[in-house]
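Progress narrative, work stream C.
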Amino acid sequence: MKATYFFCFVLFLTLIPNKSFSEDSSDLIYKTCIRTTFDDFCESELRQNGGNDTTDLNSLAAVSLKVAKSQVLTIQKYLIDYIGASPPDEYAAVACLKIFNVTISRVKKSITALGHKRYDRVTSWMYSSITDTTKCEVASQEFGSVVHDKSEVFKKTCYIELSTLFLIKYGDKA
């Protein structure tokens, strides 16, 4: 009798729909982005930048790093142009440029580390990039909101990367 109840219980559990995260989903971007803080932004950025072609979370993380690299290079170019055109405010811009040069290096290292599945390193570099970018945002108040606005977008992309790395490492366990 106990065996029958146990068998029915196991059968019942197998019939309950599994709502946990699955990489085999029909829409990996959607299922990943709903787990981020910026789900609409996440979906838009990943879809516009080749995420539709990804088949696993590691590939999706690579797409968000590619987006982050593009964003940080755009900020770097803006700062270089700004320094050349506006010498009076140059000190803050030069300080920010140094920060973003380090950030570019971190993002490039993250791309390599992701390829080797060194998720802890990527996570560490993304957190450091967010922290340093925030320092620059404070300094950038001296020379306009462009760097601030672009930095906010970059930080959102870093948070998307961190969320994706969390899913890679832990799945839906937390």
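Work stream C, second folded protein:
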Amino acid sequence: MISSKTTQIKPFYILCIISLFVPITFITTYTITEVRGDDDQIIPYISDTIDFAPESCIGTFGLSIIAFLMIIVVFIKHLIIKNNIIEKEYSYDKKEIKELRLNRFSTSMGFVSGLSMHGVSSFQFHNANLVHVIFAALFFLCGFIYLLTQTILDIKNSNIITQFFIDNLAAIFEIISALSIFAYMVTFFYEFSNLTLNIEFSGSIKKINGNGGYHNIESN
């Protein structure tokens, strides 16, 4: 007879590990970058602090663990929202199906954001700058979409009625994340102020001439 054994894991501890790993990883990489003088900026970009060894080794190790745990958190949150939607018992099925689809879409954005974080840490800027930038863009874009859609789903389906403050706190973080993206674009002002775009529209139209042939009419 084969006996089965169930192991219980508290997801709360996963969040605790992430909360510890994120500051420890970034504080370590930023400190080493500053001590070694690998970057001359007063406040380096995150990519600059994980670009060269040994910072890149520490950054890849820490961020890979964070990305893996982040994907697990996204999946657990998916199951919680799904359960809340099903238990809510909508008066008509179409609304329930719509909510479940939004939950799946939100989860997929969370997965892409988590995988992109792993890509950012694995492909350092000086080794593969294009791949690094693509993963960074996907991380921020998909991460923002995930936060936005999760906030919407939480407002509609959260069973935590007594913790109104927590719901509002989540909304505040979502707003801060959105504003940070637009605030980052402010840094483009200097480059844009020194840039002039020359746009030229040109084309050709074929017209039948008197001999039955064609000649081009250039337009500028």
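The longest strand covers residues 203-208. No further action is required on this item.
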